[in-house]
Amino acid sequence: METAWHPVALSGDLETATSSGIRLLGRELVVWRDDKGGAHVWEDRCPHRGMRLSFGFVRGDHIACLYHGWEYDTGGQCQYIPAHPKLEVPETIKVKTYATEEQDRLIWTRLAEGADPADIPAIGPATPVKTVYAAVDMQAAIATLGKTTEIGGDCYKTNVNGLDIVIAGQRIQPGRVALHVLISGEAGPVDQTKVARWAEGLRFALEDARLADAMVEFA
Q1: Is 200 helix (H, G, I), strand (E, B) or coil?
Q2: Which of 127, 133, 163, 170 is nearest to 12 (CA)?
Q3: Which residues contact 69 (CB under 8 A, 6 or more apart)?
């Protein structure tokens, strides 16, 4: 699974100059966006004392650790240590970074080296709705959706009351997933609201087998 591209966030959920802690295949990662709009996925750990970088703050094209303010550029290299402002920081002080791409209103990453963006599943133009988290494995999640068409990886299309829905799956850890829900093509606020309600019903269905055959449908 590390050689595949994985969706880790809806693009619209990550604002400029913000960061968020996520998990993928059991790894703790930080996804952050610099002041120019670029998205980055890194190991969520400052090399200094192990503090989560997702607790820190973004300054321009740097992300800074909350603990001692060490700043890292978009390549993961430490560039500034506040306690030693004149120090030429050694190149060995660097955060583990992962290939990151934005495509089809999603942020994607690949944990293995040699990433080729051409391998990202082609979802096509879509309208993001919301992300649903559930304590199930990916196979159970897809089974609960019923009839689906596989796009590639953990991405699927289904139809709900005449609307084509894209489900982009993120394997957080064994027994836990995030499902990024989008509507194929451009959709207005009415359809977005309907699908958001359906997604909430899906979340309950995923976590309670008794509801799997009685998902909340929108009117």
Answers
A1: helix
A2: 127
A3: 80, 81, 82
Q: Which helix (H) or strand (E) holds 196?
A: helix 189-207
pTM as predicted: 0.90
Q: Which two tokens stand for residue 41?
A: 């996925």
**Per-residue pLDDT in tens (0 to 9) along the chain, 219 residues:** 778 999 999 999 999 999 999 999 999 999 999 999 999 999 999 999 889 999 999 999 999 999 999 999 999 999 999 999 988 999 999 999 999 999 999 999 999 988 889 999 999 999 999 999 999 999 989 988 889 999 998 999 999 889 999 999 999 999 999 999 999 999 999 999 999 999 998 888 887 754 544 444 544
- Helix (H) or strand (E) segment spanning residue 79: strand 78-80
Is the backbone of residue 76 left (phi > 0), alpha (psi -120 to 50) or beta? Answer: left
Q: How far apart are the first and last CA of the chain?
A: 38
